[in-house]
Amino acid sequence: MKPKIIFFGSDQYASIVLKSLQKDKHFEIIKVITNRKDLLKVKLIKPQPDVGVLASFGAIVPEKVLNFPKKGILNIHPSLLPRYRGASPVQAAILNGDQQTGVTIIKLDEKVDHGPIVSQFTEEIRPNDTAEFLYQRLFTQGTEVLKTILPAYLEGRIEPKPQNHRFATYTKKLARENGKINWRKPGSYNERFIRAMSLWPGAWTLLSPPAGGFGGQAKRLKILKAHLKNKKLVLDTVQLEGKKPVTWKQFQEGYPETKIIK
Q1: Same domain for 28 and 142?
Q2: pTM of the model
Q3: Residue 188 sits in a domain of what CATH number?
Q4: Of 17, 210, 242, 256, which is most buried by a Cβ count within 10 Å?
């Protein structure tokens, strides 16, 4: 019989995992949980699922739901746990200049990204990786590893190993204000910052209003792409709030009197 899976996920990266499992003839998805409200209905599901799979789910799973699937819930987390627990592990890895990251599949417990490790692998961080591209790659590869190890896990042939909690580090849920560029930082840092914040909230800075323009108010300018030249940050593509993306050269031609507030 096919293992019966309850799936937890709430964004485009969760969809990568879900679609792959749905296409695989070896597994059966019996229920998809996409939000906190749906969690209240989990224990009404029949038949009881063999295992849960969670990927990029925006809510804490209560203990009574953790224990509902026969073999618990496996979480695909895009970092080398116990490093970078929390909501923004890929952004943190890029921003910190790490050369590699990875995926850890854990059995969920009541604490965030705390459960024992079922499987783990590393992945290179490429020089031009943005958070979006790296998340896509990690969840795609993580799904393939999950499908490979899931039969052995369900048969009890894989014993989850506790994380070394002494080495745990944490990331936070990013807010819009976290995307503001600090121009006092080196160009190499801000180049990574732009790639790390590309998904959300976007790297941005404030512009001083030109004479008679912007209603006299500073405006937000998103930095969509940049590169380093002689260790200095060179802007490539920008987007003024309410406008379409343009090259930095086009922006300067259109707003010659506007300056970045540093």
Answers
A1: yes
A2: 0.95
A3: 3.10.25.10
A4: 17
Q: Is 74 found in the same domain as 13?
A: yes
The domain that holds 8 is classified in CATH as 3.40.50.170
* Tens-digit pLDDT string for the chain (262 aa): 899 999 999 999 999 999 999 999 999 999 999 999 999 889 889 999 999 999 999 899 999 999 999 999 999 999 999 999 999 999 999 999 999 999 999 999 999 999 999 999 999 999 999 999 999 999 999 999 999 999 999 999 999 999 999 999 999 999 999 999 999 999 999 999 999 999 999 999 999 887 666 777 889 999 999 999 999 999 999 999 999 999 999 999 999 888 898 8
Token digits of residue 36: 């906190």
Please give the residue range of the domain that contains residue 226: 176-261
Looking at the structure, do residues 155 and 180 belong to the same domain, yes or no? no
